From TrEMBL:
Pfam families: DUF2007 (PF09413). It comes from Polaribacter vadi. This is DUF2007 domain-containing protein. SUPFAM superfamilies: GlnB-like. Signal peptide: none annotated.
Amino acid sequence: MKNEHVKLFTDTSIIINGLKSLLEKENINYRVKDNFESARLGGFGQPLASVELHVLENDLEKAEIVLAAYKEKINA
């Protein structure tokens, strides 16, 4: 099985930074694709909530549990 990164969540950089912290506590590796910052540097517009967080397929199930708890916390 090929272990590739898959998109877990997309939001603003502030929300993504909070999620990154929780994933690090669970030893889940991730990658961030900041489309907003890339567009800004290129002189283009992009919505603020366009920062993607990707995790390895093997960690997806565990990461989704962390994400669900995080969403519940920030939406409370």
